[in-house]
UniProtKB/TrEMBL annotation:
GO terms for cellular component: cytosol. The lineage of its organism: Bacteria, Bacillati, Chloroflexota, Chloroflexia, Chloroflexales. Residues 376-422 are annotated as: Disordered. Residues 32-203 form the Helicase ATP-binding domain. GO terms for molecular function: ATP binding; hydrolase activity; nucleic acid binding; RNA helicase activity. This is DEAD/DEAH box helicase domain protein. Belongs to the DEAD box helicase family. It comes from the Bacteria. Signal peptide: none annotated. PANTHER family: ATP-DEPENDENT RNA HELICASE RHLE (PTHR47959:SF13), ATP-DEPENDENT RNA HELICASE RHLE-RELATED (PTHR47959).
Amino acid sequence: MNFADFALHPALMQNVSAQGFTQPTPIQAQTIPLALSGQNLIGLAQTGTGKTAAFVLPILQRLLQNRQRGTQALIVTPTRELAEQINDTIRVLAHGTGLRSAPIYGGVGMEPQERALRAGVEIVVACPGRLIDHLGRGSARLDGVQMLVLDEADRMLDMGFLPAIQRILSALPTRRQTMLFSATLPAELQQLAATTAPHAKLVQIGLVRPAHTITHAIYPVPPHRKTALLLDLLHKANSGSVLVFTRTKHRANRLLQQIAREGHSAAVLHSNKSQNQRQLALDGFRDGRFRILVATDIAARGLDVERISHVINYDIPDTPDAYIHRIGRTGRATRSGDAFTLVTPEDASQVRQIERAIGAPLERRQLAGFDYNAQVPAVNLDERPPRPPRHENRNAPRTSVPPRSSAGNAPRRDQRPARRPV
């Protein structure tokens, strides 16, 4: 099968060919015909399998066949980064068609988004929270939506977006096509699909396991030597881009400082960063200005960066699903990649769960020349600097504090003149 078999609009075929695409991926081959026919569907596939084009191409095709004014397609996705990447895909594949799209997410101003929504762009790519804001302000009208996509649906439920999704669904026409794309199908998502996409066709591509192009290894290490081991690994992995995952935002910031002090070009990505800061970090990582990106799990899904040679879990992920999605950032598009995880004795339970999920033991490795028995502890990345000590003797007079001398301040009671008798 090739893309010509889908009988796409000539402009779409030209754009597909310009991207060098000839044969659809398995998820595209099975979902595009269903989507073109207007059926509800659930697409299950791991990351890096071409899910975005699997719903973008049918949306564009149907919009070109039936041109109308106003927003007709809504794509809901969990993160700003994923919204931007989907919107970029739409722009590339819709080039020359006149179809317009707009990304809607928080962390940036409302007014440019309001102008795009009021202009009636045909496709809206939105994060749930900001879309709810626009619905409340009356700047988003969804009564003309004919096609709905919930992308990374399991991730949105994990992030607590179910109430927001239900609010969005209440603003949509009941007669529409609904497509859910996800890596897993937990019970909560099955319940949502039953009411949101009735009689949906299920398309599942393989097991939710890492790509065969990824080499896995774990590095057992004492907790106080994790940072030192990571720095040695980064020096040895001296080619390609490296994505380092941490469990917390504070640890990501501290780890970035350690890496930068070693002379590496690095950036950090987590939810406390502004949208502009996050975009600068991603752009720099993509174009090679930053060889290392330190991130929390906000980057585990939807991060589309070519040629990531290594994913290193500084902290082991909490679940096998999170592990699969983290390491799915490497080994993409038939390229090889390495996934390293630093593990301490406390991580034994998570290691066993991951091994059961991927169906194979993880190779244990030791880094040649590294001193695992050094007694000098590395900096604790979770430790905040202590507060300055207060007065050791709280009963002692505060002779070191000078009296206030500002003209606007009243003198202390012991400095006030005695009151004259009346």
